[in-house]
């Protein structure tokens, strides 16, 4: 049965209520360059209760795409790739980029605690330096003639892959 959602409360009260339910992964978006994509990823990250969303580079997002969910999320700004590396120092960074993939997301047995999923920009993808520096690089198998998925869809698939392992039948919630 779904829980009562405290949406009538202040954003601070909602964030406080959600804090103990947060999941042990973060999402980072590199130079998304697409205000709709950033907003939509924030919206999806909220649905999966990511610990935080790290937006690398400048630029804003469309409120319509985030559907107000940024109020309940911790959105961290990293002005550059170097700043991102400082923010996530000591945490496992798993990049998600088909061209540099070392394995398919579907083949992962378990994700490391505190994993940061790093996605590339809608137009240019992830630079090779960031993929090379990542602890792991995942690809999402796709079967059509186009080269990639929209980053929001890719982020949703990866968050779902994380969640279905964490909340598999029998797993403690
Ligand atoms: C639209 S794609 C980037 C497309 C870019 N024009 C390119 O050719 O690399 C945006 C981001 O979504 C993620 N993505 C999309 N499809 C993916 C796939 N099949 N496997 C892994 N990541 C994918 C990656 O993080 C990628 O940087």
Features of the shown structure:
173 residues, 6 helices, seven-stranded parallel β-sheet, 7 strands, binds S-adenosylmethionine, Alpha/beta knot, alpha/beta
CATH class: Alpha Beta
Shape descriptor = globular
What do the pLDDT scores average to? Answer: 91
- Structural class of the helix and strand makeup? alpha/beta
Strand order of the largest sheet: 3-2-1-6-4-7-5
At the fourth level of CATH, the homologous superfamily is SPOUT methyltransferase, trefoil knot domain
**Strand portion, in percent?**
15-25%
What's the number of domains?
1
Radius of gyration: 16 Å
Q: Which regions have little confidence, pLDDT < 50, spanning 5+ residues?
A: none
Examine the coordinates and then state which fold CATH places here, giving the name of the CATH topology.
Answer: Alpha/beta knot
Biggest sheet layout: 7 strands, parallel
User: How would you spell out the order of helices and strands?
Assistant: HEHEHEHEEEHEH
Helix content: 25-40%
N/C terminus separation: 15 Å
| Structure annotation, total helices | 6
Say how many strands there are.
7
- List cofactors, ions and other ligands: S-adenosylmethionine
Compile the SSE list and pairings.
Blueprint: H1 11-18, E1 25-30, H2 35-47, E2 53-56, H3 63-66, E3 75-78, H4 81-87, E4 93-96, E5 103-104, E6 115-119, H5 128-133, E7 136-139, H6 151-166
Parallel strand pairs: 1-2, 1-6, 2-3, 4-6, 4-7, 5-7
Helix pairs in contact: 2-6
The structure holds S-adenosylmethionine (SAM).
S-adenosylmethionine (SAM) binds at residues 96-99, 119-120, 122-126, 139-140, 142, 147-151, 154.
